[in-house]
Amino acid sequence: MSIFSFIKEAGEKIIDLLTPGNANASEQLKAHVEKVGLGNPNIQTTIEGDKVIVSGEVASQEEKEKILLALGNIEGVASVEDKITVTGPIATAARFVVVKKGDTLSAISLTVYGNANLYNKIFEANKPMLKHPDKIYPGQTLRIPE
CA 13 → CA 19, 58, 72, 112, 131, distances in Å? Predict the structure, then answer.
């Protein structure tokens, strides 16, 4: 179990998601994960204030990380508590970076890999949540594969 922090004011807006007493919040989170293109994973979510707790089973470390990012990159979510079990082969966890104002995938690639031309590696690692390499925003958290 681990907790991942996010910038609460950044991310996709899901109306009424974190409103106290929202009985549909768990379904809204699962629908959001499906909507960003991660299918219908075997996960369950609960909300405690500005924290999302996610549990269940997934097939790979990559799928797990993408689900954590999809849930954390929602406006109003400050942290995601990870209780997901990976059933497939265990892989090395990716690093995460938070996009700063003025960042591009090329600039991030230059910083983390020493080569701006490897930006597509970051883009591919964050699909399907990213639809275009130029569509990132400050406060967004991205996966950085080895």
Answer: 13, 26, 12, 29, 17
- Consecutive sets of 10 residues in the chain, 146 residues long: mean pLDDT of each? 87 79 85 89 91 94 94 94 92 91 96 96 94 93 93
Q: What is the pTM of this model?
A: 0.88
**Alpha-carbon torsion 74, 67, 49, 22, what sign?**
positive
Q: What is the CATH number of the domain that holds 113?
A: 3.10.350.10
**Secondary structure of residue 113 in the 3-state scheme:** helix
Domain final position from 48, 67, 86 = 86
pLDDT at 12: 86
pLDDT, residue 1, reads 65
The 3-state secondary structure of 40-95 reads CCEEEEEEECCEEEEEEEECCHHHHHHHHHHHHCECCCCEEEEEEEECCCCCCCCE
Supply the range of the domain harboring residue 128: 95-144
Indicate if 6 and 70 belong to the same structural domain: yes
The Cα–Cα gap between 136 and 131 comes to 9
